[in-house]
Amino acid sequence: MERIERIHALHRILSAARYPVTLQRLQDELECSRATVYRDLAYLRDQLMAPVTGSGEGGFRYDPEENDRFELPGLWLSSDELHSLLAAQQVMKHSGGGVLSNALAPLQHRIEKLLDDHAGGRRVPVERVRVVAHRTRRLDETAFRHVATAVLDRRQLTFEYRARSTDLHTRRTVSPQRLTHYRDNWYLDAWDHDREALRSFAVDRITAARALDEVARDVPDEELDRQLASSYGIFSGTPKGWATILFSAKAARWVADEHWHSQQRGRFLPDGRYELKVPFSSGRELLMDVMHYGSDAEITEPPVLREQARALLSLAISNYEREPG
């Protein structure tokens, strides 16, 4: 019996019991160990706020004065689980009649059944929950297929790349390592043979992609993470230092709960402000995210990043010092 079934069964037993239920009876009916019963009782009491009373010696029951008022929550999915199911459902809805549409159709019904099962048998109106894509960029589907195929087949890949920051066109030959879906867009982590280094490429900037016959060079996962995930943002690279951002007391209320980087360090200051430190290599994406907070955020270290922020803000202000158009 899975945990969700045990919790529902335990709830039914305790809510119907007029007298304390012995530990042995709970073990028998739930088909589990003594330790599992205790864990499930603790979960009911501490996490779901069920009015569980009693002990292992005298048995367990719900407090009679609270029994009628307590109900199990209707949906038994975590936020991550619900997001994953709904995201998968939306992907299938928008598959556009491709080659997988018929094959994926049964999964749509399976997802709906999973949601119903985790809501105690009630139909879950999934149309009441939205997963909204944000700033998704259009990409060349043919190029994407070649990129994805090269990643999965472990073959080298050649393509035209137009850098967003410089608008420079180059021809690249790479050993694809992995595809990354980040902020609703796709990126390719790859070993660049011409530059003899790891690089990340925005797939929407890739055209004329073609898989080669040569086997791709494999870079160990530890090296990929060290080079590409150790600093802030998707185009991170090896950290060059730590950035310190100071947030106002107003912004601190939500920044303190945000995940910026796996190695971030944060602390509240005596005046209510929040100090956040993150490792960074290229400041481009970090600056963009800090600017999102406007006057509620200030980069204090390092001086070079602070100066870049000041220059960007000065340029932004200059746009408003002249007539529009």
UniProtKB/TrEMBL annotation:
Pfam families in the record: HTH_11, WCX, WYL
Domain WCX: 241-313
InterPro entries cross-referenced by the UniProt entry: CBASS_pafABC_assoc_protein, HTH_11, WCX_dom, WH-like_DNA-bd_sf, WH_DNA-bd_sf, WYL_dom
Database matches in Gene3D superfamilies: Winged helix-like DNA-binding domain superfamily/Winged helix DNA-binding domain
Domain Helix-turn-helix type: 6-57
Domain annotation WYL: ranges: 143-210
Superkingdom in the source lineage: Bacteria
Protein name per its UniProtKB record: Transcriptional regulator
Taxonomic source organism: Lysobacter concretionis Ko07 = DSM 16239
